[in-house]
């Protein structure tokens, strides 16, 4: 069964537009998530990390095809691209929660610069229990 060229072009355009909309929605969902926001707050509160990157701090879109980025009902693992005037790198974030609809607990945040230098930003301990409200 063949389809006229006009219908094929229209169908392909609708599918491509829908796919772009879905990708945009997924990126926005990640960037509004509490574990994402708390990780950026932790980065902004670490002078040595900000000094290594340089100001202003720029946060870039997540690469959804990166296998490191993973979120399920109890765990979240992200690789957030960041840059500044001096350097660029990735903010590696690990978060978890005890059960659905419970608070997220930031487990670890590490800034890795493009030269391989790693700067610890946050590490979970009982004393610095960083909790964020449910999404």
UniProtKB/TrEMBL annotation:
Ligase: present as a keyword of the record? no
Highest taxon in the source lineage? Eukaryota
TM spans (from-to):
6-27
Keywords carried by this UniProt record: Membrane, Transmembrane, Transmembrane helix
- What PANTHER family does the entry give? CYTOCHROME C OXIDASE ASSEMBLY FACTOR 1 HOMOLOG
Q: What is this protein called?
A: Cytochrome c oxidase assembly factor 1 homolog isoform X2
Instruction: Identify the species of origin.
Output: Ceratotherium simum simum
Query: Top-down, what is the taxonomic lineage of the species of origin?
Result: Eukaryota, Metazoa, Chordata, Craniata, Vertebrata
Q: Which gene encodes it?
A: LOC101408063
